[in-house]
């Protein structure tokens, strides 16, 4: 019997299968459940170009965020600002950043990453341009508001780019890599920006940052796309599984917020993120450089080296803490979060109680201790991811992210108020003793956060059925005590 030529049929079937694999699976519009889809194939050069522009934009946003860290004394002189007023620059910036987290998430779900990251870069460029020519405190505060609003849009947008463009198996690694590369922007704020300001002028330094912001406004709009070619569905990402899902319904934001906060694990995540990173943020964002140069008497170059230890150590420690968090999910608080808080407290007390200026090795140890705060704060997002369903995960993540910035702005404000109260509100009156007493205002924040971590950890374990409620334990013990004994 002659064989039939099936090559055309086989080819047609292969073409059909390939088209089916490339086409996202959809459900009926009435369906409420999410639909898992796979990323469309993307040429490697385009994939890395989109990510490269996004992560470079994030690096610039970190540079802008910390641009006052190495020039805090110059800012105090330029605006004739006391310590409380100088604190307000960072406090207002962080407040706007935190307040914008949930709205930015909603806008990303609605419009995608490209317009949001572009608008964010434009706002940061505008903020730095205003800062470059600001003649007084009021104008400088407007600049920091613009900067905080723009900064709030960048990191969530880049995370969305990673989740939508990269295959599921690569997304977790790319998120870690994005964070590590982006945080290196702190080094640009500490070294080149400070050197440029001292070599030229305030206007030139901040005008340069504004120019870079304009450049990346154009680059992000020209290069970044909401989704790879061939995909026409709006998507969100389940960070618990890494699956990319087509959005077929929207949840009520208020209900999502209430349900997220009602879960004790979300509150545990909030307080974990509240307590671990704030001291390092306050140190790097505003008060660390004046403390090291004026208080401890270091040269600007040596103070920059201490800052560099903080940044590089955080980049090294981050993957280690992430691996331990993944390996021991039920012991994150006791094994990682609470010990890291204790390490930060001990390091600060050692510096504060040291007779006279602290030796350089102790300041390096302080930077190393503070560098653990940022990676440890990511454990809060692990809690949110583990214990919240995908339909309210973004809301829970926004709640958690607010915690760290709330604590940081409180720490910055408390330190500034304490400096003024101690009569050391201007650079001419800064002193080591005043700085040491002012940094003690961090202790109540650590105590508050650690207390709530212990409390919410117990409630989370009860909620998950890992522990029994205290009342039940007491009742069981009472019943056992009153039960008749049979000898």
From TrEMBL:
All copies of domain Major facilitator superfamily (MFS) profile, residue ranges: 50-461
Q: Where in the cell is it found?
A: Cell membrane
Q: Name one GO molecular function term.
A: transmembrane transporter activity
Q: What are the UniProt keywords, alphabetically?
A: Membrane, Transmembrane, Transmembrane helix, Transport
Q: Which domain of life is it from?
A: Bacteria
Topological relation to the membrane, as annotated? Multi-pass membrane protein
Renumbered to this chain, the Basic and acidic residues biased-composition regions fall at 1-21
InterPro entries, per database record: MFS, MFS_dom, MFS_trans_sf
Question: Does Transmembrane count among this protein's keywords?
Answer: yes
Entry GO CC: plasma membrane
Which PROSITE patterns does its entry note?
MFS
**So where does this one cross the membrane?**
47-66, 86-108, 115-135, 141-166, 173-196, 202-224, 268-289, 301-324, 336-354, 360-381, 393-417, 437-455
**Is Transmembrane included in the keywords of this UniProt record?**
yes
Region Disordered, as annotated, extends over: 1-35
- Entry protein name: MFS transporter
* Native source species: Agromyces fucosus
């Amino acid at each position: 019997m002659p064989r039939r030529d099936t090559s055309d049929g086989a080819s047609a079937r292969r073409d059909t299968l390939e088209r089916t694999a490339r086409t996202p699976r959809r459900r009926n519009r009435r369906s409420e459940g999410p639909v898992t889809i796979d990323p469309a194939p993307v040429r490697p050069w385009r994939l890395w170009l989109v990510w490269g522009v996004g992560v470079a934009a994030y690096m610039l946003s970190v540079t802008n965020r910390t641009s006052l860290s190495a020039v805090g004394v110059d800012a105090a002189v330029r605006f004739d600002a006391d310590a409380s007023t100088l604190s307000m620059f960072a406090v207002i910036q962080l407040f706007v950043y935190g307040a914008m987290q949930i709205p930015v998430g909603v806008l990303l779900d609605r419009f995608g990453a490209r317009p949001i990251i572009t608008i964010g870069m434009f706002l940061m460029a505008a903020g730095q341009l205003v800062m470059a020519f600001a003649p007084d405190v009021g104008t400088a505060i407007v600049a920091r508001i613009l900067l905080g609003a723009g900064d709030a849009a960048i990191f969530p947008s880049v995370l969305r780019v990673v989740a939508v463009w990269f295959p599921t198996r690569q997304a977790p690694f790319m998120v870690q890599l994005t964070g590590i590369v982006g945080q290196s922007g702190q080094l640009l704020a500490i070294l080149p920006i400070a050197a440029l300001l001292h070599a030229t002028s305030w206007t030139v330094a901040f005008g340069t940052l504004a120019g870079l912001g304009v450049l990346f406004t154009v680059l992000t709009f020209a290069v970044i796309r909401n989704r790879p070619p061939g995909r026409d569905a709006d998507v969100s990402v389940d960070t618990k599984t890494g699956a990319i899902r087509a959005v077929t319904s929207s949840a009520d934001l208020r209900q999502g917020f209430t349900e997220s906060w009602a879960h004790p694990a979300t509150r545990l995540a909030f307080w974990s993120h509240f307590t671990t990173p704030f001291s390092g943020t306050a140190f790097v964002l505003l008060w660390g450089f004046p403390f090291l140069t004026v208080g401890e008497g270091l040269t600007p170059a040596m103070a920059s080296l201490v800052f560099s230890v903080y940044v590089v150590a955080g980049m090294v420690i981050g993957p280690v803490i992430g691996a331990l968090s993944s390996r021991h999910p039920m012991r994150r608080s006791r094994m990682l979060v609470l010990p890291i808080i204790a390490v930060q407290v001990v390091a600060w007390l050692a510096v504060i109680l040291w007779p006279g200026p602290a030796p350089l090795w102790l300041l390096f140890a302080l930077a190393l201790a503070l560098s653990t705060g940022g990676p440890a704060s990511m454990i809060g997002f692990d809690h949110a991811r583990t214990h919240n369903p995908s339909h309210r995960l973004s809301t829970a993540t926004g709640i958690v992210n607010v915690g760290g910035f709330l604590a940081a702005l409180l720490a910055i404000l408390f330190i500034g108020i304490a400096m003024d109260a101690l009569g050391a509100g201007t650079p001419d009156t800064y002193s080591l003793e005043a700085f040491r007493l002012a940094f003690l205002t961090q202790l109540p924040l650590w105590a508050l956060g650690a207390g709530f971590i212990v409390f919410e950890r117990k409630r989370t374990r009860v909620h998950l059925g890992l522990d029994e409620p205290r009342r039940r334990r007491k009742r069981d013990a009472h019943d056992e005590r009153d039960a008749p004994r049979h000898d």
